[in-house]
Amino acid sequence: MTAFTPLQNEQDSASSAPRKIIHLDMDAFYASVEQRDFPELRGKPLVVGGDPNGRGVVAAASYEVRKFGVRSAMSCFEAKKRCPEALFVRPRFEVYRQVSLEIRSIMLSLTPIVEPLSLDEAYLDVTGLDCHQGSATLMANWLRAQILQETGLTASAGVSFNKMLAKIASDLNKPNGTAVITPSEAEAFISQLAIERFHGIGRATAKRLHELGVSTGADLRRIPVATLVHEFGKRGQFYHDIANGYDHRPVKAKRQHKSVGSETTFSDNLGNTPQDNAALKAHIYEQNADAFYQLEQKKLIAFTITLKIKFADFTQLTRAHTLSSPFDSAQSAHYWLDKLFLDVPRDKAIRLVGVTYSSLVPADYQPPQLDLF
Prior knowledge:
Alpha-Beta Plaits, 3 domains, about 35% helix
């Protein structure tokens, strides 16, 4: 068996030293912003999203309510059942986006190589930086201190030599902590890690791996790569790599956006009654507004709009339309969304709707002028 040598494949291309990657993750971000801005919510079991009557989905849960088993993406009905004392507030996404920009600015003051994953988490590549004695751990702690000082919010950080391990590490000392996985510690850490903790291994894959006798990273490492590829296709190679501590993905400072979208899952499926149809249209328009806002923030324009529908039996379909000129407002898309929705079969209840914009170009794009001669 080949020895576990993650550094062999994790070298920085310009030197023999491993990369230094930080994964920064805000603690219960939406809920923490609400508790910061409204002192009466501090120390209380707080749910952001939905309402106390059980409609909607939990967008964020404070640490006080997590003790009762409440988690994001859970139905508000289930959250209320688990914690009857929970307080429910509506999300204020405009505020969260503004705070996220403040946090992003702090990150960029340390390094330009920042890859945001969402409003509340990002990767930073700090390889080769001389500040803070060249220590990625000190840099992570400085980031957390600056964020607390400037926003009043706490963050957790993971430090390691690749993205996968840095992301796992950021969960180890939550909330308000830093965890480090060094190259010398990686083999022992991965060996005892439950496969459910590996990012990229979902429930269905974990179930199949358990059927193969795989429960930990050490078990996964013992499975021949050919067997994994046979069982899982191309993903099998990825599972082999993460079991051996390999993750070659760079931190990408600028990501090329191929599409921008937003979707929501209902706690109760919506049928074909007039009331449900009105609710569906309202939800579609709401997701459209959020998707178009993202377009504006990224300074992009879009020519194609796609409506996504997921039914109660988890089957799904999409309907799309492309214009010859870009959508100029969220409202301008309502006509096309209505037409696309009319093309959706209504023999099954609906559990999710989403809107995505694609065929993206920069907002200052100027089409080439044809030469008449």
